[in-house]
């Protein structure tokens, strides 16, 4: 195989590859001979079909397979021989081939840049920190008390008010037919439009103990979007639900006093312990924000310090992904991009192209630093990230069970976990100065004073060459 470099400009490389006809013919003959051992043909025993007949019948197919495999193997050997690192899958074009002659093809690619790290201890960032104030503690304690809802029967009989709770027996009919699975006795209903259906709350306010009321709920008409399931939706819209409700008791909400009994109901030994738990929780939240701000600051410093050239194709692909999402957002909002972003489309394109370039650069840098320092992501890291993600989920245990049963689903956390581990590594080496600020400053969106925000850069992964082999960009994906 002969490889000639025909272009080397910036990160662009073009090569001409020539594979001798003898090598191709040897591969074709070898493949035909292997095929001959398995071919069955009328008049011949298995494996005894003459090679000339096998060649006549199967050579076109075998030739295509050999050419494809030869090109795949040859371009990888050429890249390895010249120690090139393709940023994306090379563009291959066959320029010359006739049976019995040499195969010639060209390959064009953008390569990953070589990055000189320098001394990471020269990186200087500020870590914002905030202390939990007594006022914040009291506010959190107040919100906790406000969330507690305890009821007792009203002293003097009266109609139910919004905010009360009523104890009822319910008999449900759907489309005129009893629905025992939805019926029940001694069911507590809180007359709160947010906790209960607004129509239900409206029709039950004013009810008294011993009173019977019928509440009819008709589902909304089906949306016109799409045709799938239209018949099912129409059927559901026609099926009105009748609730036959017997009010057995009206209960009023008890005022909540923040005292020792309240603390015990919240699982604490006493009020001091509850205050301590609340303060620790708030402090933990502050520390998470502080770490996120530190990460952002480090990424900003890295962006300022490392101004290496990045593959244009990767930037273009990242920008296309970003812009596609913007177009989708505008479509969902039924508005123009200029209106959505409060700037002209030309200005928006320029701004987001700069953001795309920054993301690609940071993604490559993070990947290089991680690879050079043997930073890896273990299964335990992914499980930990999944547990953190599940905390804000409506059904956390169900989500965790899903990840345990579908290990491949954990891979969605790998880029972010890898990035966080690299950032933690850099934080240990960089000069980090702590600055105590008020909570408002800590929680302020850094984009109010700084450049447009980035999404995670960790799609760079742990190995850019592996990404290139799969034809995947190492640039980060766009988040919302």
From TrEMBL:
One GO BP annotation of this record: protein transport
Domain PPIase FKBP-type: 157-247
Skewed-composition ranges (Acidic residues): 461-472
Keyword Nucleus part of the UniProt annotation: no
Region (Disordered), start-end ranges: 207-234, 442-480
Key words of the record: Chaperone, Coiled coil, Isomerase, Rotamase
InterPro entries in UniProt: PPIase_dom_sf, PPIase_FKBP_dom, Trig_fac, Trigger_fac_C, Trigger_fac_C_sf, Trigger_fac_ribosome-bd_bac, Trigger_fac_ribosome-bd_sf, Trigger_fact/SurA_dom_sf
Enzyme class per UniProt: isomerase
Catalytic reaction list: [protein]-peptidylproline (omega=180) = [protein]-peptidylproline (omega=0)
Pfam families the record matches: FKBP_C, Trigger_C, Trigger_N
Span of domain Trigger factor C-terminal: 271-427
Record-annotated Trigger factor ribosome-binding bacterial domain positions: 1-142
Regions annotated as coiled coil: 323-350
EC number: 5.2.1.8
Gene Ontology molecular function terms on file: peptidyl-prolyl cis-trans isomerase activity; protein folding chaperone; ribosome binding
NCBIfam families: tig
Family (UniProt): Belongs to the FKBP-type PPIase family. Tig subfamily.
Name the UniProt record assigns to this protein: peptidylprolyl isomerase
Record lineage: Eukaryota, Metazoa, Porifera, Demospongiae, Heteroscleromorpha
